[in-house]
Amino acid sequence: MSKRTVLVVAHTGRRPARVSARQVIERLADAGIAVRVLDGEAEELACPGVDVVPSIAAAAEDTEVVIVLGGDGTLLRASEIARPAGAPLLGVNLGHVGFLAEAEMEDLDETVDRIVSRAYDIEERMTVDVVVRLNGTTLTRTWALNEATIEKASRERLLEVVAEVDGRPLSRWGCDGVICATPTGSTAYAFSAGGPIVWPEVEALLMVPISAHALFAKPMVVSPRSTLAVELLPQTPGGVLWCDGRRRFDLPPGARVEVVRGERPVRLARLHGLDATGAPFTDRLVAKFDLPVQGWRGRRAPS
């Protein structure tokens, strides 16, 4: 039987993340599990006995799980490594909201125990595949877990775009941008722009205009089989495509951005037995946004 292996990714710019990562590595090693760390983080973590690997997709190959210590940004970075390998991500939140994280720092020891005992399930999250074209020529291909956002490149002028759904024109907007998001991304940038919150198990794509000067500029939820497209008008200034706020591509005037459901999901590990985790998504919303629920009495038993 091959040895169990875990990849640990940390936001090494934060001392709590470094301390927590060392704690995780030590506990995993004590359980006889091999640990990998990324070459760009190894010096800061300074843990003997770990396998230092390049920060590429191969780092997660044949790993049981990728433990991520940081905020959602760190988890999104780790997803670029884990997704090609099909390795599940388990986030320990050291940031602010941390919607993608499965555990909080105070649950760290018990979280590692759940990994050691394999007390977790795997949940798949939709992604989007993105193609940028210009006059029929493909300029780039990329993907996103949260969202692909077409934004104006300069602050002075609006971006003039035409939105399209399933090959049919929908509307023309003068706007700051357009967000094409997944349900996972509905609590990220799309939420900040006024989009709806979509439960993760709902399969759908979202299109959310940003500060559009138009009467019809509401957020839309469409079929996961749909193709969303945003075309920059030739006379508009160039724009910028951002994927998950990490991967940036310049968009020339006339560029066309097409967004479809991704062929490859991102896998998340969901733990058993922690009060703070494995909760229904409704409970996560209440906890993350500190929503008022006082007065709720629940469903009454039948008389």
From TrEMBL:
A GO cellular-component term linked to this record: cytoplasm
Known cofactor(s): a divalent metal cation
Family, per entry: Belongs to the NAD kinase family.
Coiled-coil features, chain-numbered ranges: none
InterPro entries: ATP-NAD_kinase_N, ATP-NAD_kinase_PpnK-typ_C, NAD/diacylglycerol_kinase_sf, NADK
Name this polypeptide is given: NAD kinase
Matches recorded under HAMAP family: NAD_kinase
Source organism of the structure: Bailinhaonella thermotolerans
Keywords: ATP-binding, Cytoplasm, Kinase, NAD, NADP, Nucleotide-binding, Transferase
GO biological process, any: NADP+ biosynthetic process
GO molecular function, one term: ATP binding
Binding site for NAD(+): D72, G73, R77, N146, E147, R157, D176, T187, A188, Y189, A190, F191, S192
EC number: 2.7.1.23
Pfam entry (one): NAD_kinase_C
Localization per Swiss-Prot or TrEMBL: Cytoplasm
Predominant subcellular localization, coarse grouping: cytoplasm
Active site: D72 (proton acceptor)
Function: Involved in the regulation of the intracellular balance of NAD and NADP, and is a key enzyme in the biosynthesis of NADP. Catalyzes specifically the phosphorylation on 2'-hydroxyl of the adenosine moiety of NAD to yield NADP.
Reaction catalyzed: NAD(+) + ATP = ADP + NADP(+) + H(+)
